[in-house]
UniProtKB/TrEMBL annotation:
One of its GO terms (biological process) is base-excision repair. It comes from the Bacteria. GO terms for molecular function: 4 iron, 4 sulfur cluster binding; DNA-deoxyinosine glycosylase activity; metal ion binding; uracil DNA N-glycosylase activity. It comes from Sanguibacter suaedae. This is Type-5 uracil-DNA glycosylase. Coiled coil: none annotated. SUPFAM superfamilies: Uracil-DNA glycosylase-like (SSF52141). Keywords: 4Fe-4S, DNA damage, DNA repair, Hydrolase, Iron, Iron-sulfur, Metal-binding.
Amino acid sequence: MTDAPLRTSSDDRARAERPLLAAGAPTLRAVDELVTGCFACPRLVAWREEVGRVRRAAFRDEEYWARPVPSFGDPAAQVVVVGLAPAAHGGNRTGRMFTGDRSGDVLFAALHRTGFASSPVSVRADDGLELRGVRLVAPVHCAPPDNRPTPDERRRCAPYLARELELLSPTVRVAVVLGGFGWQALMSTLTEQGWAVPRPRPTFGHGAAVRLLHTDGRSLVVLGCYHVSQQNTFTGRLTPEMLDAVLVEARDLAHA
């Protein structure tokens, strides 16, 4: 048997610097490949791997993905849905954004009702589900402890979101943002990319709508929606009807 090659400090450094390579990624697939091999945030690396080893009792017989979770959806999307980060026992387990947890159950059911998804259920990365006209993205691609990435972790992960938005620019017309964290992250990225984001920045809120113009003449409508967390969906702060209304608005604006 051949011994496995030793991992050197230069290997670790190269993998930690992967976000810096995102700006030169030629395709969305190339961005996804950079994401899945990223080790830029030590705290998140430790947490995602620990969760994958310890596992939740309900999933103790499953092999966890336990890596950064790439975005998912149509490479020619007119709408992007901006979340927060993968869930420890959802995307961190299945390897697909918003798949395998209660939040994903709510989101994919709504995407199906509004014509964006081929199925109302997303169980695992190879279940055959397809998204049409929409791509699910996140400011942070690793599951964070307590679902709370730090500002530094968001900044280190930001080049991935920035490059995705650049590559989607020929088609994307609307961004649906789930929650205040994603809203702030997206506004920061858009400002850096030359979009005319007002100062002070628009405030997040469910139903908020902001039309932004780019220096090259493009326009993007940003819609706010409460996050599909259990805290919101179980208490009725976000109902299926409210979520559907935002997605229908996004669909209509994208095709206006």
